[in-house]
């Protein structure tokens, strides 16, 4: 008799009414979030749709960099590192929609593997001393790097002295991120990548699409990508960025610190870096082809 059912299979037992209400509330909440675009998948799609939107880099007809130029910062990689680009490391928690859609400061950066110009990878060379837009950038002259307007909100690449509370998450080295105000912490300068020729090139125009060092003015540390520090971001596997000078046995900066400020090809065939990779490898030829 103990195995005989005393009720039909369609009889509801337990807290069936409460479970039904909870299920209806969960479905209602889901539909409301979907209508507002607040679902995680919708936020990710919205973020990628805006931050990966193509951007036209500046075209330099004289082969030099100028204030106001829109460029990409590309590292050609090393033994254990592929080619990477300084990129905005924004996730769905960085999104704001009021007063207009965009990313909020402070925002992190990372070295992404994509080298296609877009909102995420484009930076504007900005004067910090009143130099007119369009004037030539020279070695050792201070400048700022800011993101594009609109969704990227014109945030400035910034760094400060390493401390216990303010440092890179993985390496614990000097942190680099994006902020919304331009101060001395956002000042950078370009020096020649060869230490033996650095003094000779001081004050000379900076050629586009050649290897250089990007030095933080306050801390005198060079912008660097860390091949051994992997970040898993919304955009995939990337590397951590920091401001730290890595020297070899000859007291010369290693390839972690070598950057190319990439511009568009004047012929309209994409990036100079992609069209002429062999010329980028030989900085001396490219520099001598654009004499002062």
From TrEMBL:
User: What's a single GO CC term here?
Assistant: motile cilium
What's any GO biological process attached to this entry?
A: cilium assembly
Concerning Pfam families, the annotation shows: CFAP161 (PF24569)
Q: Which domain of life is it from?
A: Eukaryota
Q: Can you name this protein?
A: Cilia and flagella associated protein 161
């Amino acid at each position: 008799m103990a195995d005989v059912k005393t009720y039909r299979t369609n009889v509801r037992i337990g807290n069936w009414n409460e479970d039904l209400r909870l299920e209806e509330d969960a479905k209602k909440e889901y539909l409301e979030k979907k209508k507002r675009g607040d679902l995680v998948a919708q936020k990710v799609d919205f973020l990628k749709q805006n931050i990966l939107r193509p951007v036209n880099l500046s075209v330099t007809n004289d082969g030099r960099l100028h204030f106001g130029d829109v460029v990409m910062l590309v590292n050609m990689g090393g033994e254990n590192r592929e080619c990477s680009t300084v990129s905005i490391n924004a996730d769905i928690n960085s999104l704001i929609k009021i007063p207009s859609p965009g990313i909020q400061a402070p925002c992190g950066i990372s070295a992404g593997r994509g080298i296609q110009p877009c909102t995420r990878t484009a930076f504007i060379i900005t004067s910090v001393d009143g130099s007119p837009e369009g004037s030539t950038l020279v070695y050792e002259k201070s400048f700022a790097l800011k993101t594009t307007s609109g969704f990227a909100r014109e945030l400035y690449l910034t760094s400060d002295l390493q401390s216990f509370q303010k440092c890179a998450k993985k390496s614990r080295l000097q942190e680099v991120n994006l902020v919304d105000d331009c101060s001395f912490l956002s000042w950078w300068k370009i020096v020649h990548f060869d230490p033996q020729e650095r003094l000779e090139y001081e004050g000379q125009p900076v050629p586009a699409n050649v290897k250089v060092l990007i030095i933080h003015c306050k801390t005198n540390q060079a912008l660097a990508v860390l091949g051994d520090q992997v970040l898993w971001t919304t955009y995939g596997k990337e590397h951590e960025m920091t401001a730290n000078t890595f020297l070899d046995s000859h007291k010369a900066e290693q390839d972690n610190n070598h950057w190319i400020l990439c511009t568009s090809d004047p012929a309209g065939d994409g990036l100079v870096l992609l069209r002429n990779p062999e010329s980028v490898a030989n900085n001396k030829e490219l520099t001598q082809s654009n004499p002062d």
